[in-house]
Amino acid sequence: MLKKLFLVTGVMILVSCIFIYALRNSRLKEIEGELNCNITLSGRVICADDGQTIPGATLLIDSSQRAFQTDSIGQFVIDNLCSGNVLLHISFVGYKTLDTTLILTKNKQIDFYMHPSSIHLHEFQVQANAVKKQEVESVTKTELTGLELLKTRGVDLGDALKDISGVDVIHTGPTIAKPVIHGLHSNRVLILNNGVRQEGQQWGSEHAPEIDPFIATKLSVLKGAASIRYGSDAIGGVVMVEPNDLPKGKCMDGELNLVGMDNSRMETASGIIQGGFDNGLSYRFQGTYRRAGNVETPNYILDNTALLERNYSAAIGYNKEHYGLNVYYSHFNTQLGVFTYSDASNPTQLQELFAESKPINFPLSYYLNRPGGYYAINRGYQLVDHDLFKASGYLKYGSFGKLEATFARQTDMRQEYSLDPPYVGPGVNPDNVPENNFDLITHTAELIFEHNDWHNITGSIGSSFITQGNVYTGTSFAPVIPNFRNYGGGLYWIEKWNPNTSFTLEGGIRYDYKWQREYQIDQTTVQQYLTTQQYNSSTATIGAIYRFTPKLSVNLNVGNGWRAPSVYELYAYGIHGATSTWEQGDSLLNVEKAYNSTASLRYESDELEIEFGGYANLIDNYMYAKPTLTYHTTIIGTFPVFQFTQTNALFKGVDLDAKWHISKHLTFEPKMTLVFANDLTNHDYLVLVPPQRFQNSMSYKWKKLGHLKNVFINVGSAIVFRQTRVPPNSDFVPPPDGYSLLLAGIGCSIPFGKRDLNISIQGNNLMNTVYRDYLDYFRYYADEPGRSILLRVQIPFTIIPNKVQQINN
Questions:
Q1: Mapping DSSP to helix (H, G, I), strand (E, B) and coil, where does residue 112 land?
Q2: CA proximity to 146, closest of 806, 794, 623
Q3: What are phi and psi of 80, to 5 degrees?
Q4: What angle do CA 341, 344, 346 make, to 5 degrees?
Q5: Could you write out the DSSP letters of every residue in 18-70?
Q6: Which of 407, 514, 541, 800 is the most core-located residue (most Cβ within 10 A)?
Q7: Could you report the per-residue pLDDT of 496-543, keeping only the tens digit for each?
Q8: How many CB atoms lie within 10 A of CB 525?
Q9: DSSP state of 603
Q10: Which of 494, 499, 483 is closest to 460 using CA atoms?
Q11: Residue 479 and residue 445 in contact, taking contact as beta carbons nearer than 8 Å
């Protein structure tokens, strides 16, 4: 314990020294007048009406009266700018002059949009990219884009986010993962799929998000309560899966992503093609195929852990300056094998399985010679189909504001096949009959009005509506959950005040109402009866951002959120096959209410980027499945019992993200995630809380090396401590030991016509370490995957060049 304490203290001291050194160095530079004056600003000036570039537009730097003009294709490059605020005046005959202030800390690319002069004058827009602005800026936000996103290709959404500080992953075996933010997961983490609240059977720890990460060009994580903008359930945070806006102007391009991995012999192919026309019409088509065989630990193969995934999506839009309409459809299909070494007929046998260091293992020849080979998926498995249809439109009222409306319909079908086929009538093949079958249909609608700037105040007023119906069918004597229907709606108001470039103050309020009815069967009388609940609550948030200098800023946010108990938490009673547990709900559970505060300090310079944040989240009536240390025996086996219960809980912790550019080529990136959770009612710790985690990465990069671009070599480590903050005798198996993993990668961009082909090789768990993860439900039975090597290739292509494509920052 002392060694761990010394290690943590040493890391904190090192980080503090680096931070103090950077601040001192920055302050000295400012005192001595040695600001960075080698910054380059580049981009294009574009007509906002038709998307065409404007050659010959004049850009005047207010501080120096230096003037520049765009070239024959509307591009400009301005060198030798100093860090800080830069006031630009952009003008051209026939267009209204555009005045804007930029905060420069490093080289930047940006597009400026100008409106033609007319008797109907409209407010000018400055666009750096096409992504919708964040509604609540003071909540800590982390994004994965570009090459960082490329490094996650080929894995599911949960694992794609695990390298973000404050984000962990809860697993059910090697094929199922879902994100954990500040110790909270499932119904407390809201996922937005292309702007739509993702609705599926997410109450289960093994119910991974039904989303193809390849649709995203940006993955974002909001850490902290975000209920004001997104409604109830966003107690822990929000994950946003965001594709680019549809292209503008006449064009056609796309890309092909190929990923292969030796462990499980995974193979993935995902392609996208998109284009547009001069009349405002545009489109995008995307598809993914992914399959993997049985996963290998350092010492054995995990039986029945193969997966097969087939997804596709399509979008079409018609967008003009003042109005637009977009339609989107996606289909997600996956079949997941569930590791099934948990079959026991009595508690003694089950405890012997817990004590085994190695489950029953079959040789590799067994998998290669059987039907389906290495990729065969046998019973215990899950079959999931998720369909999303979205229609959205917007209308701009001149200088008044913008009105947006969205409607979405989702269908989520989940079939769970247990290890043993159920008993069915004559003439029916039991192998094709699922033990549990859930069919959930969700309709959502949202209406938002964003008003334009008024005395440095911007904001939005919105409303949302949701209705769901779930039909359960299965072969169990009693349904795992009853059929249900619910309705809900909410109203919110958010305002943001920016009196100057140094300060932002924002606040918001929201009210939500939810009505829910369950259709239940009395197992004694076989009569149907109804139970109904009504919930309502108001939420509020206030936050501020203060920028001491262009390099140093602080974010503060205080808000609350709430969550109604799910049907599963209320009425679950039966075998949860994917986790091999028996789970029992509690119909007397009350509404969960959270009071969250976050603070983060951010410093960004050419040498150092660091974000250090802390949070405290007080949750009244916190609901969780508690291990009871008892067992339930049925005709098909014995299972550990988990009982849903409530307590008052406090989650608190610290996140650190840093990037130290030691030299032109060498970069050091430390990350830290510390989570502490206490059961305030029982004056003890909570179970199933993420252990402390440290990550370090050292990268050596070349912008150009011969004919290659963006060449990099990196090596890193992930250090996870043993979770010692657990009540004694609170789980069926004590928390596993901590572990350290070695990671490494190499990659580059290769000129490929007018585009660059990206290729990389990544190695995980290179030392083939044997370990078990505390947040994996199958740690009771098996080790985590061993060494794996991934090869990623991204092949972009252009058929018709896009002359009006925006340049992202």
A1: strand
A2: 794
A3: 60, 40
A4: 160
A5: HHHHHHHHHHHHHHTT-----EEEEEEEEETTT--B-TT-EEEETTTTEEEE-
A6: 541
A7: 998 887 899 999 999 999 999 999 887 777 788 899 999 999 999 999
A8: 8
A9: E
A10: 494
A11: no
